[in-house]
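ok so i was messing around last nite and threw this chain in just to see what happens. nothing serious, just curious
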Amino acid sequence: MPIEFAERIRRIPVYPVAAGYDLGEDVAMLASNESCFPPLAQVAQAGAGALTGAHRYPDPSYAPLRRALAERYGIPPARIALGQGSCDILLAAGEALLEPGAEVVYAWPAFSVYPHLAAASGARAIEVPLDAEDRHDLDAMAAEITVATRLVLICNPNNPTSTAHDLDSIAAFLDRVPSHVCVILDEAYCEFALALGDTYASLELLRRYPNLVLLRTFSKVYGLAGLRVGYGLCASEDFRVAVDQVRQPFYLNAAAQAAAIEALRWQDEVERRVVQTIALRSTLEDGVRRLGLWAAASDANFIWLHLPEGLEESDVVMGLRDRGVLVRAGASLGRTGALRVTVGTERENERFLSALAELL
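result:
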């Protein structure tokens, strides 16, 4: 007789990981929205240096990293949630806030982890279609909020479609959300978003809306995807306490903490890399449009394009893979007939455009 698992295991979708990591070194890795820039040498050294004390558990309060983030953003350390990537905080939020009878509202397609929250908790997921420009339909989302709603997720810029709303639109939406509903504004790619201004702009929303959390990560702009460090800037300490309560202790390892702290000291270099990424993104978008394809106006470190009718998405993805280019298929992200392509180096982007032109 086979092992009997909990019902929720049958509900939870499998995260759509990118295939092809075993193809060797000469591959354009454009599938997972990683930075094309490696960590600074000083950041890598800080992470490696922490390993000399690896026989000890890390500080369970994560005080040094919380203080470093507090100094950067002017948020008290007690209102800063940390996690093993932003996914960790999202999943903890689902466990802390959701249960059978509750509802979670989010746009779709959006970040692939969002459906896990309802599936794991037994709550009801309200998925609201994107608008004609592949952006969040904020009016439609507001209309879905009821007395049963516990959590609203806004991915801005949106993954996978790369689109963003300006903060005035976000504020107008928040005005319509009841105070008992937690809103997580997922800003994993905010540093690349021209529509949002600087990375401090959304902090004003925390002062106005006590039910808001700004979710961010070191995986993208800081180039630390392999170390998994995410953080939430919380309007209320209650959220941070709740998500810490439902997780195991020592959820953030010592090397990741040390590297993240060091990365925060190099903001000038981070900003230079953002400028380079945006320039590379613009060239990549132009190249796709010259091939006659529609691409969303990107505010992230990736682009989202629609394939022409009659062209099989799976054939294109496999054709690109055969040419040493990994991208993410739209079908695995909630919409068939599209591709999500990370902004790579100039050489990687040219390789992608050349391969796509052949397939078209």
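not much to say yet. The domain at 41-263 is CATH 3.40.640.10 (Aspartate Aminotransferase; domain 2).
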